[in-house]
Amino acid sequence: MVALLALDSWNDYRALTDSLVVAYDQSLLEPVQALANGIVVASDGSVRVQEPFSIQAMFESTHLRYKYLHVGVQRIPKGETLDVNSPETTLMGVPGLPRPPEPLRAAQPDGTPVFYDAVHEQHPVRVAALRQTVFDNVHPGVSYSVLIQAAEGTGPRTEAQAESLRQELLRDTRMVLVMALLVWLGVAWTLRPLDRLRRSLRERSRDDLKPLDAGGVPQEVAPLVDAVNHHIASHRRMVAEQSQFLADASHQLRTPLSILSIQAGYAVRETDPARMRESLHAIVAQLSRTRRLSEQLLALAHATTEDEVAPAAPAVVDLNAIARGVVLQYLPLAHENDQDLGWVDARGLADEGGGEGHDDDDALVLPVKANAAELHEVLANLVHNAIKYTPRGGNITVTVRRDGAQALAEVCDSGPGIPPERRESVFERFHRDPATGNGSAQGAGLGLTIARGYARRNAGDIALDSAGTPERANGGGLRATLRLPLHVA
Hints:
The protein is α+β, with helices and mostly antiparallel strands and 489 residues long. It has three domains: 2-162; 222-303, Helix Hairpins (Orthogonal Bundle), CATH 1.10.287; 315-485, Histidine kinase-like ATPase, C-terminal domain (Heat Shock Protein 90), CATH 3.30.565.10. 46% of the residues lie in helices and 20% in strands. It has ten helices and 15 strands. The strands form four sheets. A six-stranded mixed β-sheet has the order 10-9-12-13-15-14, covered by helices on one side. It has a five-stranded antiparallel β-sheet with strand order 4-3-7-6-5. The longest helix is centred in the middle third of the chain and has 48 residues, at 222-269. It is rod-shaped, with a radius of gyration of 52 Å. The relative contact order is 0.07.
């Protein structure tokens, strides 16, 4: 605002200065025109000025210092043009006033006044000059060139310009001060609700996550308050989820610890070595389940929480190779449960029983940009769930394929499946769906939650649908599909 005001003031000052120059030049031109109207050629052929003294008195009536008049005449012989260097006769006034500069002199037609700055007797002056031609009626063909000049010192107009500049600066300074005061008062008044908001925030306790009161805040700041309230709501949900997670984890760990305590007490009291070994085997089995539960809790915390330190950029990995490695890892467990774990390569090669073939191609079959360990955890949870819920003698097939711009890994089983209305709920923490599979003990209900968490961290997702088709003889079953964007080099 100050810069714009300064520019406007400079423009006003220039306009006022131009007006002053025009006004002073007009007053300087008046005696010149009066003298021009009084130039006559007498009957004897001489050039005269009528009433020169009255015109000079009028010109010198104010500011007597540094004011000059000059009327000079040059004779133009018959048939010739004016020679500016020819002798000049002074009819009135002071001789020796500076002539118009050459560019002005060349562009000066008769009867047209010109204005220019010059120095006379070591004083800066402003000069108005007019040249006109008069003809001798007594001697035909003879004419005279008359140069009329009026000069005055530039002091008065310089003082007027300086005074206008001072007045302009004074007005602008007052305006800047008034504007600054108004802006300060306006901003202070407008920001009072924000100051109250800041004080209320400082007086809050650390666990107070209520939304901010947006009432009374300026309209321009309301979106910021809404954004802060949105962040507070997100933080409140995160704290609630963490509290619920801790409560659920404590509940899940308390049961196996209680069982271990009872089994250990029973083993301590038992005197029969056979029964003691039976109790110890039960303790080992329970410890194994508890260890898996702890690992799943840690994996869930990692899958559903952003790292405080930015993770390294994901690498380009082969989904086909990762899925094949998971099948090989769980092949012994499937055989132990008398299940047929099959594998269909992304290149369309079926490998019943997870054989070791197809390693001759080192190129990436289905490249995806993701964390290899997290993808392995996703597929491991899907395959483990399929083994757990598929009855003995059933079959499980892991298929990797390309679907347009996506890479898919499908885990199909011949188990009881999940009704469509419950397929989203199984992704919730500690959710257990009734199973009629191989009779193994139920897990903690974290596998699918962990799998989806890792999938979404890698720009993918997991969907569940029925694996049953008219061609399948094993009934419904469940198909878990991992979708990831295909990496294009």
